[in-house]
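input
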Amino acid sequence: DFIGCYQGRFFSIETKAPGRRGEPDRGMSKHQVHQHDAINISGGFAMVFDGEEDDWAKLKAWVKKS
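output
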C-alpha cells in the first residue's frame, strides 16, 4: 500500500490482489474503509487499486489534475 504527497496533494492507494473487486468494500477491512473515507472527505485522494483498466484511468486522471 502507498501513501504520499504529489505536487502538494495527499494520496493513499490501497492495493488488492486481482479478483477481490466483487467482495464487499473491494476486500478492505472496516478500518481501511474508515481511513479511505476520511482521506477523501478531507480533500485527499484515496483509492483501491487492483490493476484493472478503470483503476489505471482513475489514477491517471488524478495525476493530470495535480
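quick obs: The chain has two helices and three strands.
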